[in-house]
Design a protein that fits this description.
By secondary structure, this protein is α+β, with helices and mostly antiparallel strands. It has helices at residues 2-23, 39-52, 135-146, and strands at 58-66, 73-81, 85-88, 102-104, 114-119. Helices cover 32% and strands 21% of the residues.
Length: 148
């Protein structure tokens, strides 16, 4: 049951992010090409929301890998819930992943990343020292989720 609820909530958050991006007039750089380049802030928003509705043991994971042409390092962030469930709402920014939302126990896509580091979620991470930050955007997403 938990994985089905996680899927629903992940889809809800992705839709709320997309809806808010469609009406926002002032979007900072990480969300401008959503989902591309948006994994960190999107994971932070989703993770904080999941924690706020009672999910425990939610962390961000950051992994790296060489690009397909081996010319640069790619980084990607996603969530891990209860040390076993991968939750990713921006994996479709990569050509080998077409699913808009992934909520799974195992993922061939995520296995392509190495040097995976777990990081704690924090509202302060949305208050960037450069740019506008995402605290107001987060509040708008949460407000939309509260009205659905």
């Amino acid at each position: 049951m938990e994985i089905e609820l996680l899927k629903k909530k992940a889809f809800d958050v992705r839709k709320a992010i997309e809806d808010q991006l469609a009406i926002s007039t002032n979007i900072d750089r990480e969300l401008i090409n959503f989902p591309s380049g948006s994994c960190e802030v999107s994971s932070e928003i989703l993770g904080l929301y999941l924690k706020s509705i009672g999910f425990k043991n939610v962390v961000k994971c950051r992994g790296s890998r060489l690009s397909s042409d081996e010319t640069y390092t790619q980084f990607h962030l996603w969530l891990l819930v209860d040390e076993s469930i991968i939750v990713d709402i921006t994996a479709d920014q990569f050509e080998e992943c077409s699913e808009r939302v992934l909520v799974v126990n195992r993922s061939k896509f995520h296995n392509t990343f190495s040097d995976i580091q777990q990081r704690e979620l924090s509202y302060e991470n949305l208050c960037a020292p450069i740019g506008k930050g995402y605290k107001d955007f987060y509040k708008a997403v949460i407000a939309q989720l509260g009205s659905t």
